[in-house]
Structures are given as C-alpha cells and as structure tokens.
Amino acid sequence: MNHEAPMWEFMNTGIHFNLANVLMMTIASLIVFIIAVAATRKLAMKPTGIQNFIEWVMDFVKNIINSNMDWRTGGQFLMLGMTLILYVFVSNMLGLPFSIVIGHELWWKSPTSDPAITLTLAVMVMGLTHYYGIKMRGMKNYAKTYVQPMGFLFPLKIIEEFANTLTLGLRLYGNIYAGELLLTLLAGLGTSGVVGAATAALPMLAWEGFSIFVGSIQAFIFTMLTMVYLSHKVSDDH
Amino acid sequence: MLTSNFVLGQVHFNGGDIIYQLVIFIILLALLKKFAWGPLMGIMKEREEHVANEIEAAEVSRKEALKYLEEQREIVKQSRTEAGQLIENAKQQGEAQREDIINQARAEAERVKESAKREIVQEREKAVAALREQVASLSVMIASKVIEKELSSADQEKLINEYIQEAGEGK
User: Fold this and answer.
1) Which residues of A touch B40 (CB under 8 A)?
2) Nearest to A115 among B2, B41, B42 (CB)
3) Yes or no, beta carbons of A120 and B22 under 8 Å apart
4) For chain B, what are the domain ranges?
5) SS (H, E, C) chain B
6) CA separation, residue A10 to residues A208, B14, B161 (Å)
C-alpha cells in the first residue's frame, strides 16, 4: 500500500507534477465530457434514453440550487454545479473497480483521493464565492457580511472561511482515500492465498458497494456545500 | 501517500497538480458549457415554453368549448319549446278535426234517418193505396155477387164507392 507517486519536475522550475494525478484528472474530465456530449448530442422535445438521464441530473442540481437560493441569483451557477457534481462523481468512481501499480508507482486511482486536488477544488469554489459575493452585492455589502450580525464575530468569520475551505476539501479526500485504502488492503488480503481470498471476498463486495454509495453522496455533498457557501455570499438574507 | 505528497524536501510538493486541476476544470467547464449544458438548457427552456403555450392553448379551447356548449344548450332549449308548440298545435288541430268528423257523421246519420223515414211513409202510402184499390175491387166483386139480382152493376158501384169514401174520411 505504500506506493510511490510518479513525480516529474517541469523543467527545473520547482513545479512538480504527480503524473498519476494528471493522468487520472484527464481521464475523469474526458469521461465527463464524453458522457455530457453523448447525452446532449441528439436533443429532442420528447427526451429519450440518455437525455432523460442528463435532464434528471440537471433537475437534481437545480433542486440543490433552489434549496439554497432563489433561482434568479442561483440560475447562473447551474453549469458550475452540473460540471462539479459529474466531475467529482466520476473521479470518485474511477478508483473503485481497480488500481494499477507499475513498479512501485501507483498510476490508476481516484484523483479525489489526493488532498491537493480536493483542496484545489475547494479553494476554487471558495474563491468563486468571494468573487460572486463582491460582484453581485458590491464591495461594501460583501465586507459587511464579516461583521454581521455582530462586530465581535469578525475573527470567527475569518476562521470560518478557512475552516469551510479545509473541511470542504478534506471531507471529500478523506472519504475517498479511506475507501481506496481499505479496498487496497482487501485486495492485498484477497491475493495472498486461498484463505485470504475466501475471507476477503465478502468484505470486498460490501465495501465496493459502500464505496459507490459514499462516492455518490460525497459528490452530492460537495455540490450542495458549494451552493450553500455561494448562497451565503450572494443572497441578502443569510 | 499523504506524507509522500506533502512533505517537502525529499519528495516534492506537487504544485503542478494544483495548476493542472484548475486548468483542466476550467477547460472542462468551458467545453461543457459550449457543447453540452448550453444546448441542454436551451431544449429544456424550449420545452418549458412549449408546455406553457400548450396550457394556454388548452385554456383558450376550453373557454371556446364552454361557449359552444352554452350555445348548443340554448339551441336545444329553443328547439324543445318549438317542438312543444308543434305538438300542442297538432293536438289542437286533431281535436278540431275530431269534432268536425263527429259532427259530419252525426249530420250524415240524421240525413240517412230522415230519408229512411220518408221512404217508409211513401211505401206505407203506396201500400194503403194498393190496399184500397184491392178492397174496392173485392167489394165490387162480392157486392155484385150478392146483389146481382136486385141492382144493376152501375148503381151498385156508385153506392159502394160512396161508402168507401165515407170510410176513408172517417178514418
């Protein structure tokens, strides 16, 4: 389980790439893109097949947004929500069926099982909340949210921003990483011998199912919290 | 893996991943916006409008149907009263005709009765006349047989006629 990461430095600039992450992010993006484009290639007024699925996803994200803010302000976040939920979901699922280790380097895994990546997504989301907060309500109103409802809450509000970012990223990372770690352990046990295989088979099955559940839930939670934080910054009455 | 990624020094912090994640997510967002979500939202909005239009059209046709129904109801009502009038008229006419026919029949019957009566009277008179003649000739025969010896037949007839005349008047 203590696999190395295939690191690569970009022209001695000190910027290092984990090539496994790069590969998996690309694959996840490609899969999301292919699913989305395939689902919207033949659009009809009476939806059939995969168009139903993608419209269901869109309604799902719409409901998430509507439960946090009114549609007039929230409508513009629909595309962000759609992309986020699909990307995170696909990323979570990627590490489940198998993992590929070449030499000592782990190549195939969930990209979301790396904290740097989940935190990047989290910081991006929080950055967007601040951006839209300033853009839609003005600098003054945006600044006011830090001293409301009372002035002495200011330090707490600052802490809250960092805490939100950290928990948003680490929650996703923790869930997915733990799921993959246990899967790796079970796989190791399963390949260790006949007895190992017999003992590992059932827990493996259960944990795969549970991981699919957790992966879906985490994708939903990530999108949900994104919208919650956005609505905190964007709506007037929060 | 967590340690291997985050401890700087021997193993390097993967800042490149962060940049790559940001870039690829933004690219994905842009591509999907252009190729997937845009058209999808378009068609969903179109459908929404279509449904709204259909509902409006249904509303309009419902109103129209109600109007037509009202009209039809009015027409049915009208024709019902007309039919009632017609039946009433026909009844009255029938009544009048019945009266007429009965009256005619009564008159006809009266007339037939009258003519029958007249005929009876005529027949009776004829019969009386014939009888009278018969009686006269018979009397003459009898009288002539009885009185042949004492009276001439002329005197005798005269006498008998006188008597018969008397008998006729006395009746």
Assistant:
1) 39-40, 43, 54-55, 58
2) B2
3) yes
4) 2-170
5) CHHHHHCCCCCCCCHHHHHHHHHHHHHHHHHHHHHHHHHHHHHHHHHHHHHHHHHHHHHHHHHHHHHHHHHHHHHHHHHHHHHHHHHHHHHHHHHHHHHHHHHHHHHHHHHHHHHHHHHHHHHHHHHHHHHHHHHHHHHHHHHHHHHCCCCCHHHHHHHHHHHHHHHHHHC
6) 36, 11, 181
Task: Please give the average per-residue pLDDT across B49-56, as a whole number.
Answer: 95
C-alpha A55 chain-centroid distance: 20
Contact A16, A8 (CB under 8 A): yes
In contact, B40 and A54? CB cutoff 8 Å: yes
- Residues composing chain A: 238
The per-residue pLDDT for range A10-31, each reduced to its tens digit, is 766 677 888 888 889 999 999 9
In angstroms, the CA B28 to CA A84 distance is 10
Phi, psi at residue B71, to the nearest 5°? -60, -50
**Distance between CA atoms of A58 and B38, rounded to whole angstroms?**
12
* Domain spans, chain A: 7-234
Q: How far is residue B11 from each of residues A9, B1, B21, B170, measured CA to CA in Å?
A: 11, 11, 20, 178
Backbone dihedral angles phi then psi of residue A95, each to the nearest 5 degrees: -80, -5
Task: Return the percentage of chain B with pLDDT > 90, whole number.
Answer: 54
B2 touches chain A (CB under 8 A): yes
> For residue B171, what pLDDT band results from cuts at 50, 70 and 90?
low
Preceding peptide of A149 cis, ω within 30° = yes
Query: Angle at Cα A33 formed by Cα A32 and Cα A37, nearest 5°?
Result: 120
Cross-chain Cβ contact B21/A25 below 8 Å: yes
For B134, half-sphere exposure in the C-beta direction (CA atoms, 13 angstrom radius) is 6
pLDDT at residue B1 is higher than 50? no
Closest CA–CA distance from residue A14 to any residue of chain B (Å) = 8
Question: Measured between CB atoms, does B30 come within 8 Å of chain A?
Answer: no
Whole-angstrom distance, CA of residue A165 vs CA of residue A225 = 10
